[in-house]
């Protein structure tokens, strides 16, 4: 195992993917930022030098951070931010996982421009559980607002001016007509596409004209090979897929388009955003285009999200926990329903009647509830994050019910520090008797981010075997201020090996002005 070292200069630079030049914070001056390549078992050391005007943390999205939760980079959860003109060095081991992840800033909406690929390959000498590809290609999908990133909060959630593929807006946009991300391929060769949805707020469909791909990993966990012509990624999700240039020599668009199941939220009818696959020796000049799904094609999204299974017996696979120590039921949703309507029609889940401080009493089994924007807590906001304390090594089952009544949409829930098994996934209200019988305890997906289907639920299981404080939140940035966010506090185990070490001596400290740390 090696020590892989990077220096991240966080600095404001001017870029112009569309019509207006914008000043944005970047790492080392590029959008997306640098790709990190490691092997499983390596130690990653990243020196972050903050020359920008922003408070910064960097989160290693999906990395287990075994006994290194101080390095998780969750602003005000595991550290105070690195202030302008300050430095911090992240140092941690990468163990027990392989595939494609991402790093991103974890302070307000700065991850819009501060992000990049984090690629974990097998230890030297260990093969992939699929044929070795000819080449590997990171594809990072991004969202772009054609104004200063500091104003992002003023925009309605899903609206943006463009989507980018590896920093390039492509030919669908006025000021980007002649620029497109190009992938040159050789006929007959197979490429490993390492696909990352780094968009702030939008689920994205992805298709390549006239070609199928074979999914081999999700969120850096190997899957049973799954052949498909379309995929959907929520913000924060990654897909590793094999693409073989098996069609006639020519030009083919690879395209992304937004997926939103939210009704009543205005989303502009974007044309697909294109990159280009160029076969060696291609003579034609008009690319074939894929037919993208409708923006609200829940069925296609659901098929892709639910059909892929874990690679039982593959590298790093561990059996699903059979017993559960902690059961939790979480409801969430951004209700477009007034409290008075909820009261009048006796609809639960919109508010709790526990003001000011009584424990919730809506559910049978002991749990907590993620806030909704109509509940008392949002009307009298408290500066705190709900937390759930877990005993070391406890087996946790969490039912996440997406209770949106009027404008339900898929919420990509992301857990820091762990992968979870998606043992249940469906529409309607989860029934603890009927649906519990249908849980997949054999070959479920194991991953760190899952889109909870609109008007549906997921059932997640994980073993709390990593002491520290770990966020669980919606990866649509616009939803964090609504409170779709909580934290697990995993207690120490009985031995020194299972105890959280003290923080590094140079961990950034907070100053006393609370305005600075709003996140
Ligand atoms: Cu990718 Cu808490 O984030």
TrEMBL record:
Main location: secreted
One GO MF term: copper ion binding
EC numbers: 1.10.3.2
GO CC annotations on file: apoplast
Keywords from the named record: Apoplast, Copper, Glycoprotein, Lignin degradation, Metal-binding, Oxidoreductase, Repeat, Secreted, Signal
Disordered: annotated segments: 495-519
Localization (cell): Secreted, Extracellular space, Apoplast
Reactions this protein catalyses: 4 hydroquinone + O2 = 4 benzosemiquinone + 2 H2O
Domain of life, source organism: Eukaryota
Gene Ontology biological process terms from the UniProt entry: lignin catabolic process
Cofactors, names only: Cu cation
Alphabetized InterPro entries for the sequence: Cu-oxidase-like_N (IPR011707), Cu-oxidase_2nd (IPR001117), Cu-oxidase_C (IPR011706), Cu-oxidase_fam (IPR045087), Cupredoxin (IPR008972), CuRO_1_LCC (IPR034288), CuRO_2_LCC (IPR034285), CuRO_3_LCC (IPR034289)
Plastocyanin-like domain sequence ranges: 10-124, 136-281, 355-492
Listed PANTHER family: LACCASE-8-RELATED (PTHR11709:SF251), MULTI-COPPER OXIDASE (PTHR11709)
Family per similarity comment: Belongs to the multicopper oxidase family.
Name assigned to this protein: laccase
Organism: Arabis alpina
């Amino acid at each position: 195992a090696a020590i892989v070292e990077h220096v991240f200069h966080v600095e404001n630079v001017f870029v112009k993917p569309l019509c207006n030049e914008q000043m944005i914070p970047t790492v080392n001056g590029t959008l997306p930022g640098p790709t990190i390549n490691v092997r499983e078992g390596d130690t990653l050391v990243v020196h972050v030098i903050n020359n920008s005007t922003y408070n910064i943390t960097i989160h290693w999205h999906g990395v287990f951070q075994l006994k290194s939760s101080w390095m998780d980079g969750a602003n005000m959860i595991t550290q105070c931010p690195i202030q302008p003109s300050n430095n911090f060095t992240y140092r941690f081991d990468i163990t027990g996982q392989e595939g494609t992840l991402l790093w991103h800033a974890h302070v307000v909406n700065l991850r819009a421009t501060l992000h990049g690929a984090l690629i974990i390959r097998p230890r030297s000498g260990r093969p992939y559980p699929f044929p070795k590809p000819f080449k590997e290609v990171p594809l990072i999908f991004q969202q772009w607002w054609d104004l200063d990133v500091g104003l992002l909060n003023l925009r309605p959630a899903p609206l943006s001016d463009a989507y980018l593929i590896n920093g390039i807006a492509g030919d669908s946009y006025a000021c980007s007509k002649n620029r497109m991300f190009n992938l040159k391929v050789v006929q007959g060769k197979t490429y490993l596409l390492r696909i990352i949805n780094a968009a702030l707020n939008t689920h994205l469909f992805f298709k390549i004209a006239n070609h199928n791909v074979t999914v081999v990993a999700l969120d850096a966990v190997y899957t049973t090979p799954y052949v498909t012509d379309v995929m959907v990624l929520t913000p924060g999700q990654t897909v590793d897929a094999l693409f073989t240039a098996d069609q006639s020599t020519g030009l083919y668009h690879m395209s992304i388009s937004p997926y939103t199941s939210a009704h009543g939220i205005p989303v502009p009818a974007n044309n697909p955003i294109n990159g280009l696959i160029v076969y060696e020796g291609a003579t034609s000049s008009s690319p074939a285009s894929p037919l993208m799904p409708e923006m609200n094609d829940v069925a296609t999204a659901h098929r892709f999200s639910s059909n892929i299974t874990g690679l039982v017996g593959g590298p790093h696979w561990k059996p699903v926990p059979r017993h559960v120590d902690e059961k939790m039921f979480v409801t969430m949703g951004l209700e477009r329903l007034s409290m008075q309507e909820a009261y009048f029609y006796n609809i639960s889940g919109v508010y709790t009647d526990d003001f000011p401080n009584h424990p919730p009493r809506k559910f049978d089994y002991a749990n907590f509830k993620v806030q909704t924007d109509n509940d008392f807590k949002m009307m009298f906001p408290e500066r705190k994050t709900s937390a759930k304390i877990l005993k070391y090594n406890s087996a946790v089952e969490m039912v996440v019910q997406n209770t949106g009544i009027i404008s339900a949409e898929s919420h990509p829930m992301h857990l820091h520090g762990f992968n979870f098994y998606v043992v249940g996934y469906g529409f309607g209200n989860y029934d603890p008797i009927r649906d519990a019988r249908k849980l997949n305890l054999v070959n479920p997906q194991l991953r760190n981010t899952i889109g909870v289907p609109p008007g549906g639920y997921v059932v997640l299981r994980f073993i709390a075997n990593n002491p520290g404080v770990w966020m669980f939140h919606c990866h649509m940035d616009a939803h964090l201020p609504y409170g779709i966010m909580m934290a697990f506090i995993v207690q120490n185990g009985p031995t020194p090996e299972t105890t959280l070490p003290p923080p590094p001596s140079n961990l950034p400290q907070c100053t006393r002005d609370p305005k600075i740390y709003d996140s």
